[in-house]
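go over both lines:
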Amino acid sequence: MMAKLKYDLPTNTFPYKIPRRLNALSVPRRYTYETMEGMPAYTGAGIRKSALSGTTSDRVQDIAWPWLRRLIIIKKQYKNRFSSERLERIDRMIEFANSTLYSKLANCVIDLKKQDAKDLKKKRGWTESEWKKHMDYIGQVAAPKKEFKPPPVQRGKSVPLDVLLPRIEEMTLKPDYKCYKRMSQEDWYRNPEKVAPNALKYVITDRTKQLATPRKIPQQE
């Protein structure tokens, strides 16, 4: 089985092979223009009719419900302002939002018969022990940072100058270096600028003429 070629074969108009990726990139793009023909129909309120007639999945319906805690707070705030029908509608919304999978994963499910407010994640005040721990932590963070200084350098006993002079004289001596010759001073060196005089003469041979002529690519049928 032959491998798939990554390039297109030469043609009569273009006698060279070219990668297929470049051929695909060279194709011009097709631009679309809105002619307002065949557009979706909208209602008077600006809603698509297809959105009203379409069916939604259970996952989308569960996500569409408001948070359970918000519904309960709204019911408590507007208990004396809303009508009984509207409150019944809110109770039905609370039941649906309480039975979704997302409320179970968020640990927000409550017992509607007992109306336990503890199951809802409400903010509660700190106890005395928690407040004490918090203040101890703040005092620990607000304390100045400890500076860890390095220990002082312990120097040895002083030495007289007569004892140090031999070492000082040894350090002031000029070190011995090995001198190397330059490359141009070596015997085997050959200057690249100096070439034989015949090398500068250009003679066209039959071989160079043959290499200079373009090749004819055979056309495939």
Residues 84-98 form the longest helix (15 residues). The CA atoms of residues 110 and 119 lie 6 Å apart.
